[in-house]
């Protein structure tokens, strides 16, 4: 499961699905291995998987990443996790209303619409023989209901679970603007320690010579620790403990020796590459 969840792609939406898939697979194997020597190992494995599935269901970020997946939407929760449906529905509605208000607040002011001919005719006497043929009379007391979230839950524009998630949202951003904004933020979250490790291991080329095979990637919504270290950014708040480790390391003679050695090697490599490029230019 960790292998499938590794990588720099929008995998946060797949966490709950992968746990459910793993539990179903283990339960089938346990039935197949009934009365065999391997049967006792499956119950603890299933118990641990369910434990982490429950943790994932209680994580608002994971839930909000799974809901904007067009293959899941609300059906994944209402069919498999009925006990958590109420809490998840309240969470989704609150996030939707909050994001909708935010998007409305940053919109430029629009001029008032000009009255149309039909609006002008509302004040004129009607010749439609009363209300007999007026099937849709105007009702100023009618409530304006926001059906954008309901429309998304109806399953418009379906997509398979293996489809291009980000491509789907790019194509339907105008159909569901509020949901698209939520999807953009939550699908950028790293879903597993493997992904987080890949993100932060870019700093290995700065602190030490190990793991040099991992190049620095352009990560739009994840923290690039490589750039933090290069620019000397000092962490605060939740990352204060990490900053204290860097501060202590900076005072270490051993650390200075290793960083100086790494900097010399990097400068030598740059000079060598520049020399090769210059020789190619002469030819």
Automatic annotation (TrEMBL):
Residues 157-229 form the HAT C-terminal dimerisation domain. InterPro entries: HATC_C_dom, RNaseH-like_sf. It comes from the Eukaryota. This is HAT C-terminal dimerisation domain-containing protein. Pfam families: Dimer_Tnp_hAT. SUPFAM superfamilies: Ribonuclease H-like. Residues 104-136, 257-283 are annotated as: Disordered. GO terms for molecular function: protein dimerization activity. Residues 266-283 have a biased composition (Basic and acidic residues). Residues 116-125 have a biased composition (Polar residues). Signal peptide: none annotated. The lineage of its organism: Eukaryota, Fungi, Dikarya, Basidiomycota, Pucciniomycotina.
């Amino acid at each position: 499961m960790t292998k499938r969840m590794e990588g720099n792609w929008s995998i946060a939406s797949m966490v709950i699905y992968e746990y459910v898939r793993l539990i179903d697979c283990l339960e089938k194997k346990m039935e197949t291995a009934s009365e065999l020597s391997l049967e006792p190992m499956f119950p603890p494995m299933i118990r641990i998987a369910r434990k982490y599935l429950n943790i994932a269901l209680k994580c608002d970020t994971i839930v909000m990443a799974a809901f904007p997946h067009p293959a899941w939407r609300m059906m994944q929760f209402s069919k498999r996790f009925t006990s958590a449906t109420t809490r998840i529905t309240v969470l989704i509605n609150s996030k939707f209303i909050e994001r909708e208000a935010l998007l409305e607040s940053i919109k430029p002011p629009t001029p008032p619409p000009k009255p149309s001919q039909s609006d002008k005719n509302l004040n004129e006497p009607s010749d439609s023989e009363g209300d007999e043929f007026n099937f849709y009379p105007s009702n100023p007391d009618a409530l304006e209901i926001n059906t954008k979230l309901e429309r998304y839950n109806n399953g418009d524009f379906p997509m398979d679970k293996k489809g291009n998630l980000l491509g789907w949202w790019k194509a339907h951003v105008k159909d569901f603007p509020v949901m698209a904004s939520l999807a953009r933020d939550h699908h950028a979250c790293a879903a597993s320690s493997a992904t987080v490790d890949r993100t932060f291991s870019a700093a290995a080329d700065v602190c030490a010579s190990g793991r040099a095979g991992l190049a620095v990637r352009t990560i739009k919504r994840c923290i690039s620790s490589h750039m933090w270290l290069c620019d000397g950014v000092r962490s605060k708040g939740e990352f204060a403990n990490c900053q204290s480790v860097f501060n202590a390391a900076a005072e270490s003679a051993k650390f200075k020796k290793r960083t100086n050695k790494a900097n010399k090697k990097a400068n030598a490599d740059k000079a060598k590459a520049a020399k090769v490029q210059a020789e190619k230019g002469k030819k």
